[in-house]
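Is this the right way to post structure tokens for a design question? Let me know if I should format differently. Anyway, here goes:
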């Protein structure tokens, strides 16, 4: 039997495992169960693909998304692995043919949707394979879908515990890129993996730079951010379907090729837009969270949020769709007080149990704490997942540290304004009161006669909005959904008003003109620097790859990754034998493309 490192080299074209990969592969190949927490782009797929190739029989991979299955299978076929998928995109006769190939032992890996896996027809196929000892393993990808309180809950995932009961001798590996301690425990319990070995890799994505800006003309802010990423692929997340469509249309008017994606679009339109994003260069997808899980495009250079996500887990997973190739990428978000009000209202008005509402409020509070923290973004984000780290020197807070000041007096003024107006008004009216604006509404309620009228002239509207946001993040005030987001005092407000405790607030500095005009992030692996001639060759290789991908109707990165092309352009092997030393070129790809590559390199 081939060793794991031989399979890694000859099939996938890599010389060494990364992080925990080798230990995971050995454990599962030896028949052990595993729960793997590894960041997006960390190489989770190899953790079950290689054991499936080492063990006798077929590996069954449970995957929740059609697009992910197609991409994974396309990539495996390129590497010479006998792989297929079963989902609703196939005609009946196509599905029957794949089932027969599986039964005859002609497949190494079979990807299947959870609802298909649990049908009597498919379970009968698994029974026959199990009787012959031909089930290599079960891999449950995107395992966080089992969490009822998670952002990607899939009811069918809960039933996957039946695999252990029905096939106790077959090893199982569950994998996810994001799970806090509570979600991790839920995965172990619901999937019957309490005895499984736990592998937790660092959640750090060092190649992603995080930046959050106070919302002030968000379209103008987004445009300035996108100027750093002209011609590059990225995702812009919005909360509503309407905003998605408006944003995509507006980006087009700005000369930025963009497409909308949300659950309200026709299924065929969604499929076509997703396919274009995967296969074309430099497209921007404006989307709701309906787009993203399982999107395996490695060269997404940025993820932007025009609205606050639901939780830090959601934020981590959505931003994690950038830079899967390990090259520098950016996660950018514009955020305002209204985001907090909208999310609190959504939680309070939902039909969820009080327990679930409390959990969701805690998750939202953690996200607000992240947004408002005056210290390294990466440190705060990783600490949420139980990981300690030093300041990264590569996020907006590290590069442009905010001033922290004693905000007790400002907090007292804000709290007094809330109290004296009966805890019935939102931030806009309270700011008018503090800044002494005699608006129709101020006069209607006689608020110009209050002692707090005009006491906040030392700050502009943006400054006061930041104060109210931070008071919410500190748990001193909160929006009341029953009063359309009116700000109300919590128990923690009393000692602040009485001067018994102090409040530290952050004052966001404006970025200096021209500072960091072009993003320079950190690559996960040593960067490959190309000179002018190498760059020209790299572009020729990309054009060749694009032609090959179009001919085969697959995404370009399925043929070869950018990093492989850069290495080819720099090292320029003159003979086919030299291709084996290039990262990402296994035997099947050398057999298929070696002659064309050598010819192009020698030209």
């Amino acid at each position: 039997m081939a060793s794991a490192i031989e399979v890694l080299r000859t099939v996938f074209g890599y010389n060494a495992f990364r992080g925990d990969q080798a230990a995971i592969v050995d454990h599962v190949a030896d028949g052990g169960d595993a729960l793997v927490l590894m960041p997006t782009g960390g190489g989770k797929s190899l953790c079950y693909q290689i054991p499936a190739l080492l063990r006798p029989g077929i590996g069954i991979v449970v995957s929740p998304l059609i697009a992910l299955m197609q991409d994974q299978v396309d990539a495996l076929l390129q590497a010479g692995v006998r792989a297929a998928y079963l989902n609703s995109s196939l005609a009946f006769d196509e599905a029957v043919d794949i089932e027969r190939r599986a039964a005859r032992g002609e497949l190494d890996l079979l990807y299947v949707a959870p609802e298909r896996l649990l049908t009597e027809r498919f379970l009968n196929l698994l029974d026959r394979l199990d009787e012959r000892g031909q089930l290599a393993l079960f891999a449950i990808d995107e395992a966080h879908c089992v969490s009822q309180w998670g952002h990607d809950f899939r009811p069918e995932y809960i039933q996957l515990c039946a695999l252990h009961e029905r096939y106790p001798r077959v090893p199982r590996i569950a994998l996810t890129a994001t799970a806090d301690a509570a979600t991790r425990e839920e995965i172990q319990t619901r999937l019957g993996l309490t005895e499984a070995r736990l592998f937790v890799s660092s959640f750090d994505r060092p190649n992603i730079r995080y930046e959050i800006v106070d919302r002030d003309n968000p379209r103008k802010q987004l445009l300035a951010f996108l100027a750093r990423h002209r011609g590059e692929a990225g995702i812009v997340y919005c909360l509503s379907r309407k905003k998605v469509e408006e944003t995509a249309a507006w980006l087009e008017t700005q000369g930025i090729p963009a497409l909308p994606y949300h659950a309200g679009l026709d299924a065929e339109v969604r499929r076509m837009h997703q396919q274009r994003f995967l296969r074309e260069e430099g497209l921007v997808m404006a989307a709701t969270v309906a787009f993203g899980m399982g999107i395996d495009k490695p060269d997404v250079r940025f993820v932007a949020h025009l609205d606050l996500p639901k939780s830090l887990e959601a934020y981590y997973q959505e931003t994690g769709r950038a830079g899967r190739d390990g090259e520098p990428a950016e996660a950018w978000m514009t955020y305002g007080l209204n985001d907090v009000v909208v999310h609190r209202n959504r939680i309070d008005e939902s039909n969820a149990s009080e327990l679930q509402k409390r959990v969701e409020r805690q998750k939202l509070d953690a996200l607000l704490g992240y947004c408002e923290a005056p210290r390294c973004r990466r440190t705060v984000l990783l600490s949420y997942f139980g990981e300690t780290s030093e300041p990264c020197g590569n996020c907006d807070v590290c590069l442009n540290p905010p001033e922290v000041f004693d905000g007790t007096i400002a907090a007292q003024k804000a709290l007094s304004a809330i109290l004296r107006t009966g805890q019935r008004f939102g931030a806009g009216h309270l700011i008018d009161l503090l800044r002494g604006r005699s608006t129709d509404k101020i006069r209607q309620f006689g608020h110009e006669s209050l002692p707090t009228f005009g006491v906040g002239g030392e700050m502009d509207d943006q400054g006061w909005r930041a104060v109210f946001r931070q008071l919410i993040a500190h748990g001193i005030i909160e929006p009341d959904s029953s009063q359309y987001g009116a700000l109300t005092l919590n128990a923690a407000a009393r000692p602040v008003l009485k001067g018994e405790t102090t409040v530290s607030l952050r004052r966001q500095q404006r970025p200096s003109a021209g500072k960091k005009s072009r993003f320079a992030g950190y690559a996960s692996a040593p960067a490959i620097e190309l000179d002018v001639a190498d760059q020209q060759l790299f572009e020729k290789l990309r054009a060749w790859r694009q032609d090959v991908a179009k001919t085969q109707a697959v995404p370009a990165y399925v043929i070869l990754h950018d990093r492989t092309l850069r290495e080819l352009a720099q090292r320029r092997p003159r003979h086919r034998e030299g291709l084996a030393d290039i990262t990402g070129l296994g035997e099947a790809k050398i057999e298929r493309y070696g002659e064309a590559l050598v010819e192009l390199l020698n030209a």
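Format looks fine. Someone answered above. Worth noting: Confidence is low (pLDDT under 50) at residues 512-518. The chain has four domains: 4-200, 208-335+373-399, 403-507, 532-602.
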